[in-house]
Amino acid sequence: MRKKIQRSMVMVLAVTLLLSYTIITIITYNRNIALLEAEVRQEARYIQAAINISGPDYLAEMNGVDWTTRVTQISPEGEVLYDTRRDESTLEDHSGRKEVQEALASGEGEDVRMSDTVGQELYYYALLLDDGTVLRASKSMDGLIGTALNNLPVMAGLAVIMMILAYFMAKWQTNRLVKPIYELDLEHPLENKTYDELTPFLEAMDKQNREKEAVSNMRKEFSANVSHELKTPLTSISGYAEIMKNGMVRPADVPVFSERIYKEARRLIHLVEDIIKLSKLDEESVELEKQEVDLYEMTREIVSRLSPQAQQRNIRMEVTGEPVTYFGIRQILDEMIYNVCENAVKYNNENGRVSVWVGNTLEGPKVTVTDTGIGIPEEHHERIFERFYRVDKSHSKERGGTGLGLSIVKHGALLHGAKVTVDSTPGRGTRIEMQFPRKRQGGNV
Fold first, then answer.
1. Entry's SMART domains (predicted)?
2. Is 248 buried (19+), middle (13-18) or exposed (0-12) by CB count in 10 A?
């Protein structure tokens, strides 16, 4: 970054110097031309006045003078009568010269052209004398390239000095500009006092840091919860097995202990299965092949699978609504509806009821699960979708929950762009709605 800034500043100076050199050359050239034209005109008028007073012999008398301006006298017929540079008898007819024609017509004329005689670009100025002849004065002009070459040594020296100065100035300025960036506290981005242009970048970095911290805390909490949840059934299984191994159980109590070991083992299996499901959802490693799924038929099948569990507690389950097709991942949709319905059974009261409605709404397909269970306090509504979060741990352990079911529902909803809402009051039951997005053209959601 530092080198780029230095190169940019030096490049800007180099371009500025080049443009300055070009502009100065053009201005100098135009200025010199204006001065040269004024000088030639003034000199021509002096000579005109002298010839008109003294006669043509004035030129002959001044022949020995070292003229800086070429002076030529031309007859009306174009014959060269006098020339300061050459023998006039050797010069060709000048009647076709533009400045001569203008002088004969209006009294004066001028032209700029390359002289065939001297091989230089000249400025010609002609005046009509009293005797009818034409007096012409001319002077060589330095071309634009010549002017540029004359200015080159001065500009080159100035450029060298400016480039050296610019290099050190750019280095100093660059160090001053990048110093606040090098001194940024990336751990606390918003506490830095730096350029306003960096504010969006620092805000984004602060947001990213907070997200990383939240993820890190969630992972720590998840690891701690997993360790605790796995350790509990394993400890129970190990304890019961050790008691049986040491012969401390009467034969009549063996079925009881075996039942406890079986239940803890099943709980452990369910827990591991849920953890694996969540891991796949987090890594998006689930099969993402979508298909048309009849949510109504799927829900009826899920309720059928849960019927034995509901019958043990005399809970009545019913499905109402209408057939509705949704384009999604069958396995994930099944897990979502199953976990919500299973929770409605687990946390329901004896002789309770679970009502499931499936149908179409203006926003798209919807699945609503309502129970007459223990309910959830309002302050827990936002957190029940967190992993291992339980409103009442004693009831959760008693009813065999792993604390991961609703977390799976949340991940599945995110995967399908669905929205999950909870409406619950302690002692009056719970209603959970899963609102899926409306099907778009082409079958995608």
1. HATPase_c (SM00387), HisKA (SM00388)
2. exposed
Per residue in 115-130, pLDDT tens? 766 667 788 999 999 8
Q: Report the candidate in 420, 410, 368, 369 with the shortest Cα–Cα distance to residue 386.
A: 410
306, amino acid identity: L
The closest alpha carbon to 154, from 25, 15, 13, belongs to 25
Say which residues have a Cβ less than 8 Å from residue 360's Cβ, sequence separation at least 6: 322, 324, 366
Q: Specify the pTM.
A: 0.42
pLDDT tier at 398 (50, 70, 90 boundaries)?
very low
**Cα–Cα distance between 130 and 31 in angstroms, integer?**
33
pLDDT digits 0-9 by tens, 102-114? 999 999 999 888 7
Task: Give the dihedral sign, CA 23/29/35/38.
Answer: negative
The C-alpha atoms of residue 373 and residue 48 are separated, in whole angstroms, by: 125
Q: What are the φ/ψ torsions at residue 407 (nearest 5 degrees)?
A: -65, -40
* Percent over 70 (pLDDT), the chain: 73
